[in-house]
Amino acid sequence: MAQEMEDFWVFGYGSLMWRPDFPFEERQLARAFGYHRALCIRSWVHRGTQDKPGLVLGLDRGGSCRGVAFRVAPAHREAVLDYLRERELVTNVYMERIVPTLLADRRRVQAVTFVADRSHEQYARKIDAEEAAIIAASAVGQSGPNDVYVRNTVQHLREIGIRDGWLEQVVRRMEEIKLPA
DSSP per residue over 85-150, as a string? Predict the structure, then answer.
């Protein structure tokens, strides 16, 4: 699939945008089509546990998503794909896909990304901002508190000029929640 792409582009919609951890030749703000950013993955490792799952980002069906696209040199394609698969496919809740992507300079490219597998047990059916805030406000995993992850995501999105109203609503609601210690 990704091996067949003429130019190898990677689309990031979460931490990959500011922490790609792979070599690239070009980076642009971009919009991927067919999916939207959502806290739709129940995290059993990094931001929660199986007993008390947190929520992390995934691309879910429908709409479009603003993020960052990276063009990777042909010489690095296989190593970057291996790295991304290791990073994203830990519990196989994501599926590798190639999505149509519009770059900030108006070029249209195909980019590899990882989308939520709606049939996976970690997929969180559509939840509202209130429920997401309650979950994220109290979950903690190996990589730290879930609320820190959500706040950090919103902060980084703002820094690159991307506003995500739903995630911002989750953060506002998390700040209002007063959970007992």
Answer: HHHH-SSS-EEEEEEEEEETTS-EEEEEEEEE-TTSTTB-----HHHHHHHHHH-EETTEEHHHHH
pLDDT digits (tens, 9 = 90+) for 59-87: 999 999 999 999 999 999 999 999 999 99
CA count, 13 A, side-chain hemisphere, 103: 15
How many beta carbons lie within 10 A of that of residue 175, not counting itself? 12
pTM: 0.90
Average pLDDT, the chain: 93
Given a contact cutoff of 8 angstroms between Cβ atoms, the answer to whether 43 and 132 are in contact is no
Pairing outcome for strands 54-72 and 8-12: antiparallel
C-alpha 41: how far from its chain's center? 10
Contact between 17 and 105 under an 8 Å Cβ cutoff? The reply is no
Q: One-letter amino acid identity for 63? A: G
- Averaged pLDDT for residues 41-50: 93
Calpha distance 61→45 (Å, rounded): 24
